[in-house]
Design goal:
With 194 residues, the protein is an alpha/beta fold. It has 8 helices and 5 strands; from the N terminus they run αααβαβαβαβαβα. The chain has a 5-stranded parallel sheet with strand order 2-1-3-4-5, with helices on both faces.
Length: 194
């Protein structure tokens, strides 16, 4: 063909359009499994208190940035957080930090969750922090989840991460921590800015 992969890809995109994956989450599966457990009930209660105080549910944008094409965990976490009282926006695969920040600003989220399985977190999280500032969304908190080596935690916190959730984190625990970040650790009725 005497063309590069990039040239072939561009030709296909021009003639066929760019593929856009449809991202779906499922409500009720996680909630049905954890209903009545102490942590899930506490997470639901705190999310309800946040909603009562602010007139809306706590809201998170789950971003898949860079070359990370692993989205199963993103969908599981999104579905679980919805069952725990959150409003969840799911970003498409392969976003740039700038695209994720723009989507997060448009969605008016409280938290941007950077999901990372492809080891790009040390570059992408600082870029996301800058991009959120450039978008006028510097108040959105950043959390990081996925395969994150413990030796990277300090660098991620220094880059602006408010929390890190490595493999094995119980989703109800992450929801509780996220609500603590938003409320300053009270009963969910106070924002971090108050």
């Amino acid at each position: 063909a005497k063309a590069t992969v990039g040239e072939i890809s561009e030709a296909i995109e021009r003639s066929q359009g760019r593929h856009q994956a449809i991202i779906r989450s499922i409500k009720g599966v996680y909630g049905g499994g954890v209903k009545g457990t102490e942590k899930a009930d506490e997470a639901l209660s705190l999310a309800a208190a946040f909603e009562k105080k602010h007139g809306r549910k706590p809201k998170v944008y789950i971003a898949k940035m860079g070359q990370d094409g692993h989205d199963r965990g993103q969908k599981v976490v999104a579905s679980a957080l919805m069952d725990l009282g959150w409003d969840v926006e799911i970003g498409p695969l392969f976003q740039t930090p700038e695209e994720a920040a723009a989507d997060a600003r448009k969605a008016e989220v409280d938290i941007v969750a950077a999901s990372s399985l492809a080891a790009g977190h040390l570059t992408l999280v600082p870029e996301l922090k800058r991009a959120l500032g450039n978008e006028g969304a510097a108040n959105a908190r950043i959390i990081v989840g996925g395969v994150i080596p413990p030796q990277d935690f300090d660098a991620l916190y220094a880059a602006g991460a408010s929390a890190i959730f490595p493999p094995g984190t119980v989703i109800a625990d992450s929801a509780l921590k996220m609500l603590e970040i938003l409320t300053g650790g009270d009963d969910g009725t106070k924002t971090a800015a108050e």
